[in-house]
Amino acid sequence: MPHHPHPDPYTGQYEDGNALAGPLSEILAVDPTTALGCCTGCGSQWRLARLHVYAHAPGYVGRCPDCDHVILRLVRSPDKAWLDLRGTVALTFSLDT
Ligand SMILES: [Zn+2]
User: In what order do the strands lie in the sheet with 70-76?
Assistant: First the structure.
């Protein structure tokens, strides 16, 4: 039997994704263009409102205003929306308190 000198302290301590309903609803309710992002290409930071958005494709493509790296892609159909955020490290939302 393998020996694990440093067992994962988080094993079995997770909840399912329903635990995200409240926290995600809170941030998705604010104006997303004010969110602060960070480019995975060049590391610059900006508000989403500063992205260069190309809306002539089947969806929207948002590019970094500093290096032109693709930050997000959004495709909308009548009954679904598909959002790819792989070009940003994270988004920070300012919340009213
Ligand atoms: Zn960039």
Answer: 52-54, 60-63, 70-76, 81-84
Q: What is the DSSP letter of 36?
A: E
Q: Each residue of 32-48: pLDDT tens digit?
A: 899 999 999 999 999 99
- Calculate how far, in angstroms, residue 2's C-alpha sits from the geometric centre of ligand 1: 44
Predicted model pTM: 0.77
Q: Which two tokens stand for residue 10?
A: 């988080």
**CA 70 to centroid of ligand 1, rounded, Å:** 8
CB atoms within 10 A of CB 62: 21
Half-sphere exposure (Cβ direction) of 54: Cα atoms closer than 13 Å: 13
Q: How many CA atoms lie within 13 A of 87 on its CB side?
A: 23
Cβ neighbour number for residue 29 with a 10 Å cutoff: 10
